[in-house]
Design brief:
The protein is of the alpha/beta class. The chain is about 40% helix and about 20% strand. It has helices spanning about 10-20, 35-40, 60-70, 85-95, 110-125, 130-140, 175-180, 190-200, 205-210, 215-235, 260-265, 280-285, 300-315, 340-350, 355-360, 395-405; strands spanning about 1-5, 25-30, 50, 75-80, 100-105, 145-150, 155-160, 165-170, 240-245, 290-295, 320-325, 330-335, 365, 370-380, 385-390. It has a six-stranded mixed sheet with strand order 10-12-11-15-14-13, sandwiched between helices. It starts with a strand and ends with a helix.
């Protein structure tokens, strides 16, 4: 396959050419945006393009936008190339319509991975997998993208450790400003300032927004969740789509990652169930649904839960805190390090049996590293608060008393 390399640095272009040829492709080299644009007008125009961000004349971002404006050609797969590696730069690349973003100096494996994905997407003539199958692969992988192509539109649902990290559709807004456009307390200038802070410090946009008092974490999480859910719904509705899962090594930061059940329609997910805790349970009890995170609470309830969790995570030695609704194993709020909802829910099932719940004060579960203290949060609806603490440095008695105070009105 012919692959266009637009880069005014001869050394960088030569490296890419060597990698492309080694993978069986033909490299077409140009030195600026104008030459690249001309090369894309011919009848045998390359359909995979590596664009350097900074070039004479038309830069990579502008050229990417021009490519996405073409309506009478086959889809062109665009990989943006730059020495820039800040989150803001990557976001700008995707907003311009890029399919991928890689940084200089090149890593051979990374370039070849992008070529593999691009080739597979462009050469597929029918659905390699259904969305249901692709989402199943993504949930069990360490990271990767479910890619859906429909004509000139390409949608991606990005996964990290089984959770949905983001969703993107070529040709649609995907910026932080667009996502927060309806939040009255956040202006476009606020967004620019947040992005500058993220660029300078490497912090996640969620942490900066919350620390600056522009929005609560619970509200932000709800907005991000709804944004991703809407993108996934659109991707799921793309007609005559070609679908596949592409495993990717990915490093993700922050806590705005969502269990698939929150953002993907249930009809597109394989059912997950927890195994019975005892052999006889398969006969005498029905298996409860897996735990999941939600934020569909009224403002007053969410505020109360958030305040109590803030107090709980402030307890000396606390690593994480979460509140679970026992009616379905639903986590309605959390603080601190990531907590495994399914692991905790498998323990919470015990407190729903018999009359234990009526007399329960607290329960302690010990592992090699941590101790989990479970205590009723509300009796109706039945909710429980879970606090993970460091067993090596924390005094259990003090923690139990402090957690009891957190649950008092």
């Amino acid at each position: 396959m012919r692959v266009l390399v637009a880069d005014d640095d001869p050394f960088s272009a030569a490296i890419l050419e060597t990698l492309l040829v080694s993978a069986g492709h033909q490299a077409v080299l140009v030195e600026n945006g104008a030459e690249a644009w001309e090369a894309l007008q011919g009848p045998d125009a390359p359909r995979i393009v590596f664009l350097d961000w900074v070039m004479p004349g038309i830069d990579g971002l502008e050229l990417c936008r021009k490519i996405r404006g073409l309506t009478n050609v086959e889809y062109t797969y665009v990989v943006m190339v730059s020495s820039r590696n800040k989150q803001r730069d990557i976001s700008l690349g995707y907003q311009a319509g890029a399919d991928e973003f890689i940084t200089k100096p090149y890593k051979a494996d990374e370039v070849l991975d992008r070529l593999r994905v691009a080739t597979r997407l462009l050469e597929s003539t029918n659905g390699v997998a259904t969305l249901r199958q692709a989402f199943g692969e993504a949930r069990s992988a360490a990271g990767g993208d479910v890619i859906v192509r429909s004509g000139r539109r390409v949608g991606r649902v990005m996964f990290f450790e089984g959770r949905v990290a983001w969703a993107h559709i070529s040709g649609e807004p995907g910026s932080l400003a667009a996502m927060l456009a309806d939040v009255a307390t956040i202006s476009r200038e606020d967004v620019r300032s947040v992005l500058e802070e993220c660029t300078e410090t490497g912090r996640s946009f969620a942490d900066v927004l919350v620390d600056w008092g522009l929005i609560t974490r619970l509200r932000l999480r709800s907005i991000v969740r709804d944004w991703i859910r809407d993108k996934v719904q659109t991707i799921a509705g793309l007609p005559q789509a070609r679908v596949f899962f592409s495993p990717e090594a990915r490093t993700a930061t922050g806590d705005m990652h969502f269990p698939p059940e929150e953002v993907i329609p249930a009809t597109l997910l394989e059912p997950l169930t927890l195994p019975p805790t005892r052999p006889e349970a398969a006969v005498t009890e029905s298996v409860m649904p897996p735990a999941r995170f939600v934020a569909d609470l009224d403002d007053a309830t969410a505020l109360t839960i958030g305040e109590r969790l803030d107090r709980a995570i402030a307890i000396e030695g606390a690593l994480s805190a979460a509140v679970f609704d026992l009616r379905g194993g639903i986590c309605v709020g959390s603080r601190g390090s990531t907590i495994d909802p399914d692991l905790v829910w498998s323990k919470l099932r015990l407190v729903t049996m018999g009359e234990l719940w009526d007399d329960l004060e607290d329960i302690m579960i010990s592992t090699r590293q941590n101790i989990y203290v479970l205590r009723p949060f509300t009796r109706s609806p039945p909710r429980i608060i879970v606090l993970a603490i460091d067993r090596a440095t924390t005094k259990i008695g003090m923690v139990r008393r402090a957690l009891a105070e957190c649950t008092d009105p």
